Amino acid sequence: MRGFDLFTFPPFGFSIVRIAEIFNSLQGEGTLLGTPSTFVRTSGCNLRCVWCDTPYASWEPEGSEMEVSEILGQIEAHGSRHVVLTGGEPMMAREVHVLADRIRETGHHLTIETAGTIAPEGMACDLVSLSPKLANSSPIGKLPAAWVERHEARRWQPGVVRDWMQAAACQLMFVICSEDDLGEMESMVGELGGDIDPHSIFLMPEGVTNETLRERAAWLIDVCRERGYRYGHRLQIELFGHTRGT
Ligand code: SF4
User: Fold this and answer.
1) Nearest alpha carbon to residue 213 among 21, 29, 25, 23
2) Whose CA is nearest to atom 8 of ligand 1?
């Protein structure tokens, strides 16, 4: 990792991003599972998934605006080579392109975790973790009809997901609630076209307790073995429970 020097670094003092939290932990999901990483969670999301596990960055966004230099300073202080830009929806954050460029210029490996509803438009990263949302995410009954319609219209945009898949190394993460979701998930993958390696597709059980995850894992594991997908463990729940900053 290259050193970070506030005095010699190119100027970017006016670039600002709204941040819900910055913390260091282990990556709990996907191909980099277990990798020490600094997480930069932006605040704000264009979806309202009913089971969202970070409502403080979506349904009721919290946080404050930080200059890119300040964010980079915190990343350097944590000392991990791997950085994860997550949300909320990080692609909604003003100046996210500037932040991503600076993170990579300082020698970090950058993962972007996005729902794939906003095009990359030149965004550079080392890994994009795409998590398109299935119908099980609908906030129906929890929010007014206008928000439900907005969520439905936005959650699945195959053209945008394809753009991301061409822009960077990627993994596809699907949140699965029941076996009924599998047909929809496979039809979404089919819509993406091409020859997508099932090994790049993770099926993550929905849930924020070990009990729920184990219940869903019981049948999801067999689905993965039979169809070649990867089981999407959620290590952070197992290690820390559903706790902020982990
Ligand atoms: S896309 Fe992610 S952050 Fe946004 S509401 Fe859904 S689960 Fe929450």
Assistant:
1) 29
2) 52
